Amino acid sequence: MESVINTVIRSRKCWIILVFIQIGIFSRTGCDIQNFNSLYFRVPNMRMSSLPVITINNVPVEVCAERCVRETTFECKSFDIDNKDQGCRLYNDSLDDPFIHLIPSTFVDHYRTAYVKLFHRLPNHIVTVSHDRKIPRISVEKCARRCVLEVSFKCQGFDYEVRLQNCWLTSKTPAASGGVVIQYGTDYYQRTFDGPFENFINFGYGTLRPLEGIHIYNKIMLGVNLEHCAQLCLVENGFTCSSFDYLFNDKSCHMSKYIAANVHGLQNEYSEESKSMHFEVKDEYLQKFYPAPYSAIVGHNEKTISRITPSKCARMCLMERDFICRSFDYQIQDVKCLLSSKTGSDVGGLTTHGHAQVHHFEMKPYLDCGGIFTSSTGNIASPNWPRKYPHNMKCTWNITVSKFKVIRLTIIHFNLGKYTDFPCDVVNDRLIITEEYQHQNDTLCVQHDVDTYTSKTNTISLTFQSNSKFDAPGFKLFYQEDWACGAVLTDDNGEFASPRWPYQYPSLSLCEWTIRAPYGCTIYLSFTSIELEEHIKGNCTSAYDRLEVFDGSTKNSSRLASLCGKKGIHAYRSSLNVLSVTFISDDRVQERGFHAVYKFFYPPTTTIESATTEDTTTTSTEKMTTEQTTSAAITTETAAKVFPFNASHLSLIAMFVEPNNNNSPVDKSQQSQMIDQTTESENIAVTQIDKDLTTRNVRLWHTIIIMIIIFIFIVTVVVVTLVIVCRYYRTRVPKRRNTSNLPFTEESETLYRHDNHLNDNLDKGSSESINIPQPSPSGPPPDVTFTNPMYDRKHGTSSSTLASSTYMEYTI
Question: Across-strand partners of 233?
Fold first, then answer.
């Protein structure tokens, strides 16, 4: 049977179909060029014993993986990467084939398929007893691969008999089959697609255990399907929906804020009369793990943590420093978390103990080689983490956080293999941190003894480079935006705060901020929140944790304030263009800290230019005339900038400007006469200005009224046009009649009457039979016919029932 299927698959027509199937597969799974590695498992320093079908030179591992997936001229099952010359070798053989094995080889890595990662495993469950195809005696990986590459129907999953190694492909989902069924010795593998179920862990059959005196369900919805229930849980706003139980008999959705760990597990005593399934929400930490319910790694746990949730357990595994945590087991009834450096493949497979309340979670590999991060927090790891990274990699991550903040890196693990005394040497695998500070690029190569790093700006770049020599686990780090412990602030409308605000500031801190404004400006500083350690005795100058504000750039400058304890809003203003703030904390009590904002105040601008040097021979009368002319010009220019008058107004105003000259030999009568003339001229100018403004206002109102009238006219025309068009088309629609409106021809009218007579005869109970075309009995011969004794034995199905539900498989 296997040989027949392989022969059919190798046909040209089937390969053309397979191309479209593969394209559809990876469009549904969200796979791109940097995620084709997720379909393969790396075996370092090993190569295939057979000869490759195709060899491609000078390509990275991502391109080689994509080429193997999209290959259509033959069935690509695995590939090797020569790290020395970046050669890609594609094979149509795998380790499951006879007489095929791996050979140790330096600088070569073998990649075998891992299609089983595209499925969610439920031990001791089956989805249906009506499968579409059976493939006997194959491994789980081959069964998963056959389901992915199936072309005759849409394979949604498969049931796998562990002892007999039988693969049962099906196009049905739990929602289509009415729920899963408990069947010991058989595992159900469900395809994972993008959609609402990507945010949930499927625990199979069961419901939350009831608690006496507590309503474990916060909302119950009736008459909804399974997918709709998942969407309702995700968008629920009245409470935090953490899980839901779906009952297939009455199509009811039971949403709860509790998970199985809160109620001491699930009740999963199977009953044919009541089928149900339990789903739990995956948060940001559980999203990074493959869940395997009712499975565990026995005897390979390095650390045990009690009284925490599965989400907290996943977070502890991600941040574990003592060893590289690759998986964890979670015991629901005992509320225990067991961290491990091993996975199921490391120990020969997972152990399943019926429906014991223990679940296994395995960390997903980090596949991104570079990226752009703009969120406030995140984590970055070398490609293929927590396994060893590939060779010849060059990845760049750019991190940008909010303005006025810095980036704090926390390095959890760092192991790049052998290195020289200088970590930046090109012969080493390197992690380089680069940032632009004061118009220069600061570069740092991370060393093995570095645990934390704090940037000077809000943007940094991480570059990872690996060569073809060494093989090492790599690195894992977290980043978080934080407030800088001291800085020189030169941007207007800025802010700063104590480190980690609004959370507790670190102990033994000494932070200094210098706010520097442009020359001639002053600085306004306001503290929006102050929560420091209380100091009962003495003033704040001797407090344990305190803030000091100085009117200058050093501590020798004038002290504006010393603050401690919990204060309200405090504001200060500098006398010059520099202000400094100092924050001091001891090693005892830590509070939330402080937050402050500042603003620059610029001096008023002036338009008067310095007078030109005068000739020593100029007389006093000429000086007076020159000063009067210059004063009149300045006043006219100033008036033109302040008031939007026309040229005639400005000249009129300039005629009545009185120059300021204390040395002018004008008597009091002339001076009084000049003042009267000036006053009269100013009144005339103001009257003329008022008239112009009134005229402009009248013209503006006329324009507005005309625009309103035009708008009303346009709206009226549009409405009348719509009414006329609607009336026209309404008159063309025929009215309802008791007879058909179709213009029958003679032939169609005869058939119409004949059909009505047939209906009348059928209503009257006539025995006249209608000859309906039947399907041809000579269909394609079945490729194989078989029964399933497993279901006959478990469910007590009679032989006649099995005969009526015989499974048939047709050739492609």
Answer: none
Which residue type is seen at 193? F
pLDDT interval class at 570 (50, 70, 90): confident
- d(C-alpha 115, C-alpha 121), whole Å: 13
Query: Which residues contact residue 238 at a Cβ distance below 8 angstroms, ignoring those fewer than 6 apart?
Result: 218, 219
3-state class (DSSP) for residue 296: strand
pLDDT higher at 159 or 265: 159
Q: Compare 395 and 268 and report the one with higher pLDDT.
A: 395
The whole-number average pLDDT for the span 189-198 is: 85
Average of per-residue pLDDT values in the chain: 78
3-class state of residue 634 by DSSP: helix
Do residues 99 and 47 lie in contact, with contact meaning Cβ atoms separated by under 8 Å?
no
Query: What's at 796, amino acid-wise?
Result: G
Instruction: Decide: 327 and 360 in contact? Cβ < 8 Å.
Output: yes
Chain segment 53-82, per-residue pLDDT in tens: 999 998 888 889 999 988 888 889 899 999
Rounded distance, CA 683 to CA 685, Å? 5
Classify each residue of 400-409 as buried b or exposed e, where b means 16 or more C-beta atoms within 10 Å of its C-beta. bbeebbbbbb
- Report pLDDT for 680: 59
Average pLDDT score over residue span 141-153: 92
In order, the DSSP letters of 489-542 are E-SSSEEEESTTTTSPPPSS-EEEEEEEPPTT-EEEEEEEEEE-----SS-GGG
- Is the separation of the CB atoms in 471 and 109 below 8 Å? no
**Which of 498, 514, 517, 638 is CA-nearest to residue 575?**
517
Contact 527, 570 (CB under 8 A): yes
Q: Which position has the token pair 């916060």?
A: 218
Place of tokens 């400058």: 557
User: d(Cα 476, Cα 412) in Å, to the nearest integer?
Assistant: 6
β-strand partners of 378 = 479
CB atoms within 10 A of CB 235: 8
**Model's pTM, two decimal places?**
0.67
Whether pLDDT at 380 is above 80: yes
Cross-strand partners of 597: 495, 526
pLDDT, residue 688, reads: 65
Query: Which domains does the chain carry?
Result: 31-113 (3.50.4.10), 287-363 (3.50.4.10), 371-482 (2.60.120.290), 487-601 (2.60.120.290)
Give the confidence band of 34 by pLDDT, cuts at 50, 70, 90.
Answer: very low
Token duo for residue 260: 């199985």
Structure tokens given for 32: 């791109």
- Residues 446/419, Cβ–Cβ less than 8 Å: no
The total number of residues written for the chain in this structure: 812
Least confident of 25-29, 97-101, 412-416: 25-29
Which tokens in the block code for residue 445? 């190569």
In the prediction, which pLDDT does 357 show?
85
Tell me: pLDDT of 652 over 70.
no
CB 570 within 8 A of CB 563: yes
- CB-facing half-sphere around the CA of 617: CA atoms within 13 A: 0
Give SS3 for 236. Answer: coil
Residue 642's H or E segment, with its range, is helix 620-642
Distance between CA atoms of 154 and 23, rounded to whole angstroms?
Answer: 14
* Torsion angles phi and psi, residue 379, rounded to 5: -140, 145
